[in-house]
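Hi V.,

You were right to ask for the full record rather than a summary. Here it is.
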Amino acid sequence: MTTKHRPGPWNLARNEVQNRLLIKYSLHTGGPLAYISVEDSEEGEANARLIAAAPELLAALKEVVAEFDAKADELPPGYMQRDTGGIAYARTIIAKATQ
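Predicted structure:
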């Protein structure tokens, strides 16, 4: 499955002059992906950290689903339903992020 977003990792940098956070696609040389005004807000910084972690969270979610599918294939038919609970939710979020 390919995605249209810039691959991670994304990193957080602070622009002290304009008091905003910058999400970059490479810590030292990468260009900006987004600017987030935080005005010394803990919530703003938490939101920026979550956004910066998005590519890694998506990759981890894909890995969890892939591992679940691999294990489910080894079980007897009907032993475990594939698309219930957290796995169904994970598939929905992956689709939301990649479409």
